Amino acid sequence: MRDVTVLRTDRFILRPLRSDDTAALFPTFADEGQCLYLTRPAFTSAEELWGWLAEPGWNGRTWIAEGANGAVCGRFVAVPGHEAGVEEVGYVTVMDRQGEGVARECMVALVEHLFAEGLRKLTAEVDTDNTPSIRLLERLGFRKEAHFRQHETTHAGLREVLVYGLLASDPR
């Protein structure tokens, strides 16, 4: 994993992942409904989740959104894309904080930070049935660039995927 810069929003601190975050993330990542749009099924143990979160060979960056009371509210990632200057972003809000604007507030800060680092484009892949995520991406200014039909087989079966993109020069 690559190093991350600590970011601040009005309500959250986005900080590097720590091993003790696993306990707070596990209920969400162990829930089949919450993991429907992941490419893998729900996790069966905290140890399995930590192995995935802290995979030594993974070349992405992880930010943990921490609320004012120190509670873990979500996980946000940026992963190098197909060429320099492009990264794919992703996010998961913990179950008990969904619908509170956590992802929107944290993604606004992350998008601005990534473009300030010099990236020219951000992308996001989203299952066509993941309406809340699609709405968030569109509110952030991402544009739909591709619709891949019968694109990948996951634990949820054969899925269709949308690819969204946001250029540094796009209005936000």
Protein model, in words:
The protein has helices at 21-29, 46-53, 102-116, 131-139, and strands at 7-8, 13-16, 61-66, 72-80, 86-93, 121-127, 143-154, 157-167. The protein is an alpha+beta fold and 172 residues long. The chain has a single domain (7-167), classed as 3-Layer(aba) Sandwich (Aminopeptidase). The chain has an 8-stranded mixed beta sheet, with helices on both faces. The mean pLDDT is 95. Residues 12-169 form the N-acetyltransferase domain. GO terms for molecular function: protein N-terminal-serine acetyltransferase activity; protein-N-terminal-alanine acetyltransferase activity. Keywords: Transferase. Pfam families: Acetyltransf_3.
Summarize the structure.
The chain is α+β, with helices and mostly antiparallel strands and 172 residues long. The protein is 24% helix and 34% strand.
From the structure above, extract its key features.
172 residues; alpha+beta; Aminopeptidase; 24% helix; globular
Question: In the CATH classification, which architecture applies?
Answer: 3-Layer(aba) Sandwich
Cα radius of gyration in angstroms: 15 Å
The mean pLDDT is 95
The low-pLDDT segments are none
The level of helicity is 10-25%
Number of domains: 1
CATH class: Alpha Beta
Strand order of the largest sheet: 1-2-3-4-5-6-8-7
CATH fold name, please?
Aminopeptidase
Number of strands: 8
Q: Calculate the terminal CA-CA distance, rounded to whole Å.
A: 29 Å
GO cellular component, one term: cytoplasm
Domain N-acetyltransferase: 12-169
Organism: Qipengyuania gaetbuli
GO molecular function: protein N-terminal-serine acetyltransferase activity; protein-N-terminal-alanine acetyltransferase activity
